[in-house]
Amino acid sequence: MAVYLKSESEIERMREADQIVASVLAAVEKAARPGVSTLELDRLAEELTRQAGAVPAFKGYQGGGPYPFPGSLCTSINEEVVHGIPSADRKLEAGDILSVDFGVKLDGFYGDSAITIPIGEVSETAGRLIEVTREALELAIAEAVPGNRVSDFGDVIEDYVESEGFSVVRDFVGHGIGRALHEEPQVPHYRASGNNLRLRPGLVVAIEPMINEGTWQVETAEDGWTQVTRDRKLSAHFEHSVAIGHDGPVVLSRRPEGE
């Protein structure tokens, strides 16, 4: 397993990419209202990305589906877990929850992050699911310190999520990131043997728990890309790109406070 450690200057270049991701996701979150189509959000994201001098990382992505991914965003609604395809026909409705996964490439380096957005007033269960998923990611980020192991991320996520009555998707995991969108190591969000790589300064990982209301099991929709919960209950998704710093985690895709 080849794991590439980044220099401080490379991490700074990745931060620049991730800050574009963060600003685009903030704009998408603001625009995500009842009646808006997921294709409108996708076009907004691509326009802002190219204005910033970057390119969408997912558009045309090969692998994971039967054809290149057609969107800049992954827009997954309610029971859709990840890899939802933006569509002019899919308009948001009050009570939906929308998971948006987004990445860019800037000057040879990738940034990647995800959020789940409540559309209008959502159910108590949907609100809890969003908050538990967000908190699970924060608990994992706190483990991103030198000397810990990759498996520590999954341990804290699974323990917390299951204590709250939800489940952790096992079919998709986090990953290293840098000059490629997906690098080693894989980062499971559940307890998994064989992921005992020690964390070292310079490692950058994308941690992205996908948490389901019901069963952790998923299946592929007819479009060949979108992943849905097998029981058709809700799913939420949050992600940050995190560098292992000498003094602890450095969240590259978090917007500065006050912005």
Task: Set out the fold topology.
Layout: H1 8-31, H2 38-51, E1 55-56, E2 73-77, E3 80-82, E4 97-106, E5 109-118, H3 124-141, H4 150-163, E6 167-168, E7 174-176, E8 183-187, E9 204-207, E10 210-212, E11 218-220, E12 227-229, E13 235-237, E14 240-245, E15 248-251
Antiparallel strand pairs: 1-4, 2-4, 3-12, 4-5, 6-10, 7-8, 7-9, 9-14, 10-13, 11-12, 14-15
Short summary:
This protein is an alpha+beta fold and 259 residues long. It has helices at 8-31, 38-51, 124-141, 150-163; strands spanning 55-56, 73-77, 80-82, 97-106, 109-118, 167-168, 174-176, 183-187, 204-207, 210-212, 218-220, 227-229, 235-237, 240-245, 248-251.
Walk me through this protein's architecture.
Strand 14 and strand 15 form a beta hairpin. This protein is of the alpha+beta class. 27% of the residues lie in helices and 25% in strands. It has four helices and 15 strands. It has helices at 8-31, 38-51, 124-141, 150-163, and strands spanning 55-56, 73-77, 80-82, 97-106, 109-118, 167-168, 174-176, 183-187, 204-207, 210-212, 218-220, 227-229, 235-237, 240-245, 248-251. Strands 8-7-9-14-15 form a five-stranded antiparallel beta sheet. Strands 1, 2, 4 and 5 form a four-stranded antiparallel beta sheet that branches. It has one domain: Creatinase/methionine aminopeptidase superfamily (Creatine Amidinohydrolase).
